[in-house]
Amino acid sequence: MNQSESRPAPIGIGVISILTVLLVLALSLFAALTLASARADLALSQRNADTVQAYYSADAEAARLYAAFADGDEAELETTLPITEQQYLAVHFVRQDDGSVRVLQWQTVSVEPEIDEHLPVWDGSIPQS
Questions:
Q1: I want to staple 92 with a disulfide (CB 3.0 to 4.6 A). Which of 43, 52, 104, 127 is the partner?
Q2: Domain layout of the chain by residue ranges
């Protein structure tokens, strides 16, 4: 009996090469997806940081307005401080009879988005035939 006939044939070098190429392609795809996800997370984090910084700047300005109002003699102060294009900080202070200051409003308010009336939006009613 010949020794080469009793051994099973080893996996060919072609199959190993194809598996290696597929593995490299899969890893490259995962790397590209990871990079895209990281860039999106960075952009979102930067936008969030900018919004938080703008909020605290408006809040600090409102605190300065409160201190100036408390030291002054005006009866009422109502104003808005812009945060972003979609938000503003609304403050409203009133002086009490005893001279103390009461805060009626210190609130972040969202600007209502403009609605385009030209878009054909379904209003929920069933059309009559």
A1: 104
A2: 11-110
